[in-house]
Amino acid sequence: MEDVIEKIRQIEWQKKTNELHSKGYAAVSGFLAKPQCQQLIDSYNAPSGYRKTVVMERYRFGLGEYKYFDYPLPSLIQTLREHIYPYLAPVANQWMNLLNIEKQFPSTLQALQAECHANQQLKPTALILKYGQGGFNTLHQDLYGDVYFPLQAAIFLNDPEIDFSGGEFVLTQQIPRAQSKAMVLKPKQGDMVIFTTNFRPVRGARGYYRASMRHGVSEVSSGNRHTLGVIFHDAVS
Question: Is the residue at 57 inside a domain?
């Protein structure tokens, strides 16, 4: 996994931090190589390694399916969680300070997991999602319990020019006393988007306020679309 760790180190983290502060999300182009993406896609139908499968329409989450990985996580996903998190913890703590929230996040993933486990959040939240033609994901937030880290990442595994059409990544930001703002992204294969889990600070006339954000996927017009979700906190169930 040294190649992945080096790839993480090479990210222009100050630039991405600025983008997170200004937009609530930041994109990293070509983060995973095509063979790594294909390996994850191929593993989707593996008979083991997952703790739970969710059929979205059963819960009115959308149309598609996703699977939560089980512990121990695959080495690639464990490496992503452990080595991306320390770059995001300072951003999360700055957000808490700006919003006058008495919460500070630890500098390591292991310490965050200890907080989760103390609150009976014991289940891994890393997941892989699959959509076919007509598939979509309703706007939502991935919280899973009282302890949640305010940033997460999605890595896009298919080539939108070859494997599928439609299926854009959608973010919405709720502006107080106004209509929501929508941001529609079209990531390429291997791209990673880091974005807020719940809310972000936005400067207003009287200081900073919370802007609630949600994310989802627009309808897939054709083909198949897979995404890896990297969430840093654990779940109650």
Answer: yes
Among 116, 172, 168, residue whose Cα is nearest residue 140: 172
- Structural contact between residues 220 and 166, judged by C-beta atoms closer than 8 angstroms: yes
Domain range enclosing 49: 2-230
Residue 177 confidence (pLDDT) above 80: no
Q: 208-237 b/e with 16+ CB inside 10 Å = b?
A: eebbebbbbbeebeebbbbbbbbbbbbbee
Class of residue 73 by CB neighbours under 10 A (exposed 0-12, middle 13-18, buried 19+) = middle
Number of domains in the chain: 1
The C-alpha atoms of residue 24 and residue 32 are separated, in whole angstroms, by 22
Q: What does the pLDDT look like over 187-228, one tens digit per residue?
A: 999 999 999 999 999 998 889 999 999 999 999 999 999 999
Summarize pLDDT for 109-122 with one digit per residue, the tens. Answer: 999 999 999 999 99
Average pLDDT over residues 88-111: 98
Residue 93 lies in a domain: yes
Strand, helix or coil for residue 52:
strand
Give the CATH number of the domain where residue 225 resides: 2.60.120.620
Q: What is the mean pLDDT of residues 169-195?
A: 93
How many alpha carbons lie under 13 Å from residue 116 in its C-beta half-sphere?
Answer: 24
Q: Around Cβ 200, how many Cβ atoms within 10 Å?
A: 25
Residue 167 lies in a domain: yes
SS3 for 115?
A: helix
- The answer to the question of residue 236 being in a domain is no
